[in-house]
Amino acid sequence: MENFPEAVIIGAGFGGIGAAIALRRIGIDDIVIVEREDDLGGTWHVNRYPGLAVDIPSTTYSYSFEPNPNWSRLFAPGAELKRYAEHVADKYDVRRLMRFGVSAESAQWDEEQQRWRLTLDDGQTLNPRILIAATGYLSQPHTPDIPGITDFAGQIVHTTAWDPDLDLSGRKIAIIGTGATAVQLIPELAKTADELTVFQRTPIYVTPKVDFAIPAPVRSVFNRIPLAQKGARTVTDLVYEVIMVVGVLHFRQLNPVNRIAAGAAHLFRRLSVRDPKVRDALKPDYDFGCKRPTFSNEYYRAFNKPNVSLQAGGIEQITADGIRTLDGQQVDIDTLVLATGFDLWDANFPAIEVIGRGSRNLGKWWRDNRFQAYQGISVPEFPNLFNLAGPYSYSGLSYFTTIECEMIHLQRVLGEAQRRGKQTVEVSEEANADFLARMTSHLDDTVFYAGDCASARSYYFNHAGEATLLRPTSTANAFREAKTFPLSAYNYS
Ligand code: NAP
């Protein structure tokens, strides 16, 4: 492996693929993409549980510069997303840059060489000039530390480690968690399980999913007339933008709209779940949008099945053959499914140890000084480092908005360095501080601060209680700023 590449990208998911395309657009081709998994696709390579599908319309959940006219459904199944990632990597010729089965462990800025020193788990070191962390937000599976979990004698499966050949029919299954993953998986497990017990700690808002197969003639039109698909994308982009801007970001001014969305979800639950006790237990008691809501036509109805029950009273202990609840019941099971999500703030900010100029440790600095990054991507004292999953980076509801804004950002700032004949770019303290102040003031209007999120247990909030994950502006603003932020926000040397 070339040890002094121009750039290293950590992660071969959609973020890493997009970053590689952005670098190649400005003539940087000496790139190594390191990926700990054995193939590309990130979340869509790792997640293979039954029912996996995108829950943003595929017309929006894709690169705008590479529309896929062949999506089979409005909300495409996970396997199609994986194939789409492969297609893009091949078409834009970035697969050849990827090295699989190797994890980045730590990175340190070498002041003398003006390069990063990236240590890999195979003992090698890479010394790129530019380092891009495309490690995603939800990539470190969370295994809950519930008393007795190691004593369980049956099979334990985390949703991120699903063997597609696993057949759970006829089993007595418990599933812990009711996030977006569980909402997709529960109806599938309910089809064949002998008994399925759902352990819920915090209810989730679920709204109907307007999903349908895209008819062959429509796909044919999308293939022949790209403008038609662009039109469809504009519509789905707009719907999701309105949900986010009106329902979440301007809660203070427009909370009646948020209440209507919450009311629609409550009505859907009341119409779908027959048992009044179960219906009540599934009711969220925080404001809509505090935690990521999800879409499903089957989740609530699964609780009407005779083989499905809900446990919402809390887990006391996992035993060898089951789960004991806080209210003294013993639920016997042979299979435990952990739909318990991801470690976000503990394990992903940043995903590896990063030491910048003056021995500044990124993780420690964020925790001592608040989470912050200019335009969600750059931090002072970390030259030539672009952290794609930074604080305030996630824009809107589709991850592709975030990626494409970041691609524009990378192209502009690194292109400017090329024009000036400079090797190093570093965001100024002032630009970073201004951006943080602006994001902080926007947050005041959001449901996160103006609403009631106390009981939501939302991963949008960090351990200090600040909602520093999502960028509290419209995606239109994020795109505009990506295209127009002053290049003088960076120092070039
Ligand atoms: P998640 O939203 O973080 O949900 C994890 C669930 O596990 C929560 O219900 C959580 O309860 C529960 N849990 C965790 N630790 C627990 C413990 N010790 N005891 C009891 N319950 C515990 O994770 P996810 O469902 O995997 O979804 C993560 C994100 O992935 C989603 O928000 C979404 O952005 C994305 N996703 C997207 C799609 C898609 O189609 N695009 C599909 C799936 C997921 P609490 O809420 O009480 O913490």
TrEMBL record:
It comes from the Bacteria. Signal peptide: none annotated. GO terms for molecular function: oxidoreductase activity. Gene3D superfamilies: FAD/NAD(P)-binding domain. Residues 7-213 form the FAD/NAD(P)-binding domain. This is NAD(P)/FAD-dependent oxidoreductase. It comes from Mycolicibacterium brumae.
